[in-house]
Amino acid sequence: MSLINCKNVSFSYEGRTVISNLNFEVEKGQFVCIIGENGAGKSTLIKGILQLKNPSSGSIFLGDGLKEKQIGYLSQQTIVQRDFPASVFEVVLSGRLNNQGFLPFYKKSDKDYAKKQLEFLEIGDLKNRCYRELSGGQQQRVLLARALCAGRKLLVLDEPVTGLDPVMSAEMYRLIEKLNKKEDRTIIMVSHDIKEAVVYATHILHLGKGQLFYGLKDDYIKSEVGKFFLGGRMNDT
Ligand SMILES: Nc1ncnc2c1ncn2[C@@H]1O[C@H](COP(=O)(O)OP(=O)(O)OP(=O)(O)O)[C@@H](O)[C@H]1O
């Protein structure tokens, strides 16, 4: 059964439709990359998946027992977040708050889980450092660990490499791919970079004036829309 089932979905703001007729399903274990130019509706769709915005028509179903609280979300970082005066471990652990109900303290299992995520993302040594003193790339990894703590079933990443240099970006992509391949995490990632998307994703959702393509990465590369947007570059590499 699919984790996300998007059926005939359209979104609008104040009566103006910004994206219409989306139809796709995300199964467990997939790495879906949502691509499209500025204003195509990528962030709006993410809001819909997180159940923060209702479609103007159609429905987004969460399946396989997935609850909104089990979706880990990494948004684009704001300037205020960059200056957050807490330790790395506190930031990562705060991802568990969603799952706590009314009890405002962490259990041992929460702390163990947070430590495990730091180790998996190869930043265990940063645990006691102050978050605001880290580099942009380190901060982004910490926020990824926080998102992993927030949701085990589905990870939603909105432009996770924005502001990072090419080396840091490649490092982030490597870790995200490791989460998908080694931990079997289901991932939905928004990206501007089509070339990177086709390297790491299993599936591509391309938004333009509507849904231009949804399916396997390899089929995307062979498709008319894929060929057009990749400009034949995949065949050159
Ligand atoms: N809160 C809002 N109120 C009104 N219009 C909005 C709002 N948020 C987004 N829009 C409009 O909806 C359309 C889709 O925006 P959205 O941010 O989802 O696109 P995007 O593909 O994520 O763009 P980008 O790549 O620039 O982040 C745009 O025309 C945008 O101006």
Give an overview in words.
By secondary structure, the chain is of the alpha/beta class. The protein folds into 2 domains: 1-66 and 153-237, P-loop containing nucleotide triphosphate hydrolases (Rossmann fold, 3-Layer(aba) Sandwich); 78-152, no CATH class. The chain contains 10 helices and 9 strands. The strands form 2 sheets. It has a 6-stranded mixed sheet, sandwiched between helices. A 3-stranded antiparallel sheet has the order 2-1-4, with helices on one face. Helix 4 (108-120) packs across helix 5 (136-150). It is globular.
- Please provide the ordered H/E string of secondary-structure elements: EEEHEEHHHHEHEHEEHHH
- CATH third-tier fold name of the largest domain: Rossmann fold
Which sequence of strands runs across the widest sheet? 5-6-7-3-8-9
Q: How many β-strands, per DSSP?
A: 9
Radius of gyration: 18 Å
Structural class: alpha/beta
Globally, the shape reads globular
**CATH 2nd-level architecture of the largest domain:** 3-Layer(aba) Sandwich
- Terminal CA distance reads 36 Å
In the CATH scheme, the class of the largest domain would be Alpha Beta
CATH superfamily of the largest domain: P-loop containing nucleotide triphosphate hydrolases
Query: What is the share of helical residues?
Result: 25-40%
Low-confidence region ranges: none
- Bound ligands, named by name, code or SMILES: adenosine-5'-triphosphate
Strand content: 15-25%
**Largest sheet composition:** 6 strands, mixed
Number of domains: 2
What's the rounded overall pLDDT mean?
Answer: 89
GO molecular function, one term: ATP hydrolysis activity
Protein name: Metal ABC transporter ATP-binding protein
Domain ABC transporter: 4-234
Family: Belongs to the ABC transporter superfamily.
